[in-house]
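quick one: magnesium ion bound model?
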Amino acid sequence: MKPLLLGYGAGGRWFVIRLDGGPRGPFVERLNGIARQAGIVGLSVDLLAEPPTEALVQRLADYLYSDNTVNEGRLTRHLTGFLARSEIPHRYDLRPGAPVEGRDLFGREDEREHLRGHLEAGRSVHLRAPRRYGKTTLLGAVREDLRGRGRACVVPDVSAARSVVDFLAEVAIEATRVETLRDALAALPLARGGFASPDISPSASKKAFAERIAGDVSRMARDLFGALASLRAVLLLDECSTALRFMLPRKRDEARMLCEMLSDARRSGAAMVLAGSSGLTKYVEFHGMTDLVRDLATVDLAPLPAAQGRVLLEELLYETGIRPGGEVLDACERCLGEPVPYFAHALVAALRAEFDRGTTEFTAEIVQVAYETRLLGAWGNTFFRVYRINEQDYPDQVRPGVEAMLNVIAKTKAGAEVEELRRAFAKHVPPALEGSHEAALACAQEDFDLVQTDGRYRMRCKVICDRWAMGEPWLAGE
Amino acid sequence: MNETNDRGFDLETKVMLPPEIRGDPEFRSWVEQLRMSVMSAVVQVHDDVMAALDDAGRKVLAAEGRKRDVWFVTGEDGQSLLKSVAAIRSKIVRELAAARTEAPPTLDEVRRMVLAFHDLGRFRVVCTHASDVQAAIRELLGEPPRNRLLGKYPIAGEVKDYVHDLRLRKPKSGHRAWQFAAAVESNDGPVFVEVQLMTLLQNAWDRRNHPVYEWTREGKDLPDRWIISDVALAETLYLVDDQAARNWAEFVAICNGGAR
Ligand SMILES: Nc1ncnc2c1ncn2[C@@H]1O[C@H](COP(=O)(O)OP(=O)(O)O)[C@@H](O)[C@H]1O
Ligand SMILES: Nc1ncnc2c1ncn2[C@@H]1O[C@H](COP(=O)(O)OP(=O)(O)O)[C@@H](O)[C@H]1O
Ligand SMILES: [Mg+2]
Ligand SMILES: [Mg+2]
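yep, here:
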């Protein structure tokens, strides 16, 4: 049967839904009901047999759940987005792992707004979240927001910095890559015509620069951060805690110097975001340097609100070619617990792997099996690498104690009591370190998103908890 | 898609509309609501006719043993299956003007008027041959023709044959089609869907001629010699259709091993 085209128009634009094959009457009824509810000003509607020119044409299947009921939320979003704001409906790219950009960024409106607000008010921020909760993604968005308001951002990769000089070199070289900053920075006394040479590799440039400033680090820091502050540039220091946590146990003075340097920079007016995948605040506190980070405002990235998590799952499923259904979404929600976007991507990737193997009818059971055998199985290893305890840079002697605590937490459904955790910790560390269990737990709390309810600790993210509870040596130990 | 010019709508007639819908945006959103609520009923008739003709088309092809286009189903004027907002407005105005009442009607009266339009919903079955028109009529109304579409939707009034019925054929119009209005239950009670069946050439003439039809409907004149020549055009197409159907029948017979 020839397709019929149901067109909704407003503001000179037409949003057309292609209805293939009958019976179409009931769909038209339902779609019209939703369109009417959407409250679009000046809405008109038409029913066409021939495709109109210059219209956005969507398929009915894009707005159906697997049981052929209409997905009201999605239709309303797309309809109002297009007719009221000319937004082409977005198809969310399935990207489990790499930071997402542009319209692939889902939700996080409040956090984005808070970050921007703090920075524009001249406050620096500690962006706190465990690994893969979306820090880099959010920083990318904030960078765009600020750029849109005429403020340059410098985004160095400081994760591999092993000293203050390293750190400074990263910042300086990255800063000169920003066009609006380049000339002003080149004029600094220590820059001598630029930080990086186009003739040599970035690492050689960095090395040459590091050698040049080695004797005069504090002057360089003062000049550089002072210049950035006067240019109203914002420093986005992603993976900042990786560097700090590397230095703290090994070169404590170096770490302290770095914290002091950043603290001085802020005092002289430089705005920055310190993003850390791990327990930066507690770790710093543990090392008696709290005074150096006290001025930072904090923004936390938690799992998404449940309703948003469900929409993200839905969107990713449509993109994958799997029409979501209530039963399937419920099952996904049960698997994810509080939804971390990363694991929503990962779970849908697992379902897609099933889809690619020929599964077309998805049920709650298939979701559960895909979760258990894929995400929690060998297929899913790559998603959990960053949650290995070795990745978090605990002091060698403390690590077994942390591991023991995490095992207890992951395996105790009702949550673990502090006393229980203290005992587990004590059993696995040298007697001299027994007293550090509180600090260790505090770090683990930020690294593994531990939350406390009624005095008991549990892992907030069900997926990480489920995987940890399996007690795999590669994840927990060596 | 349909635009909304102010066809046949002047200050004098505007006064006749009920106050709630006298403003342009108010009228528009009121009519859009009405269109939305009757739409699914129109689609239901359209889908049933499409399904029946899809099957019947296959039967015609099987009987002839040749591959060809038999018919297609489409909307009229800008291809919409529903009368446009502008067309609804001008029809209301025309009907109100014809009724010549003193006081403006109530909103409910206008609503009932619109729901009673015999062509609020409408689509066209465009057939390749005049003989296909006959086959489609048999399929949709039965043999002999009954007063129900597909045995399901009651037909309001008669099935009109503007091709052969001399009572209906207007000497000053070249519009040639079979048509009828079928009643279907909607959220707002029964509404009517006008189904027009015509040949490709009749449709072509009609599509070409629509602006002329609108011009005359607005009460504007055309010279007699122009009208005579234009109706003659339509009648010429009648001859072409008639001969084409004969030629086709002969061709099919030849293909199937009949007389040469
Ligand atoms: N706002 C978001 N919308 C959609 N997906 C997200 C979002 N934030 C994170 N993700 C998912 O999580 C993954 C990790 O995000 P990323 O920003 O790299 O986290 P982090 O920097 O905290 O490790 C991304 O690849 C993507 O799959
Ligand atoms: N495109 C056309 N050209 C000429 N005459 C037409 C056309 N369409 C319909 N007609 C004739 O005019 C009559 C009324 O047409 P229509 O535009 O539908 O007005 P109404 O809304 O009063 O039915 C039809 O019954 C037919 O005789
Ligand atoms: Mg990151
Ligand atoms: Mg009509």
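Residues 16 and 104 of chain B are 5 Å apart (CA to CA).
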